[in-house]
């Protein structure tokens, strides 16, 4: 029996009550008109697919119906923590070279991750 901790209900609930909704912490560009087509396309369609630590948005669909974030290891499937939207994860991966370059690009665009 697999259970996930809902930070809103503040208790462990059955896995069947939850649905993953994709990558967490995706920030909409502050000025979409200023984005190039490539930058806007990246925002809309491209998501990380890391081997290791990944932050995901999940919904407690058959419970409180609220969204929250999960830090999950994509190799072991272990859920390392859950936290509410707007909070920051306490478990993070070391940024790879490509992620470091991406965060530098975000700073240039005035976007905060
Ligand atoms: Zn809940």
From TrEMBL:
<dbReference type="InterPro" id="IPR006279">
    <property type="entry name" value="SoxD"/>
</dbReference>
<feature type="region of interest" description="Disordered">
    <location>
        <begin position="90"/>
        <end position="113"/>
    </location>
</feature>
<dbReference type="Pfam" id="PF04267">
    <property type="entry name" value="SoxD"/>
</dbReference>
<feature type="compositionally biased region" description="Low complexity">
    <location>
        <begin position="90"/>
        <end position="105"/>
    </location>
</feature>
<dbReference type="InterPro" id="IPR038561">
    <property type="entry name" value="SoxD_sf"/>
</dbReference>
<protein>
    <submittedName>
        <fullName>Sarcosine oxidase subunit delta</fullName>
    </submittedName>
</protein>
């Amino acid at each position: 029996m697999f259970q996930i901790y809902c930070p809103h209900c503040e208790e462990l609930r059955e896995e069947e009550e939850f649905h993953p909704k994709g990558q967490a912490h995706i920030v909409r560009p502050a000025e979409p008109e200023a984005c190039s087509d490539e930058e806007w396309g990246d925002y809309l369609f491209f998501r990380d697919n890391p081997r290791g630590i990944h932050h995901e948005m999940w919904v407690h669909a058959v419970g409180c119906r609220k969204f929250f974030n999960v830090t999950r290891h994509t190799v072991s499937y272990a859920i390392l923590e859950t936290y509410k939207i707007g909070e920051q994860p306490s478990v993070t991966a070391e940024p790879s070279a490509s992620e470091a370059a991406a965060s530098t690009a975000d700073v240039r665009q005035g976007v905060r991750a």
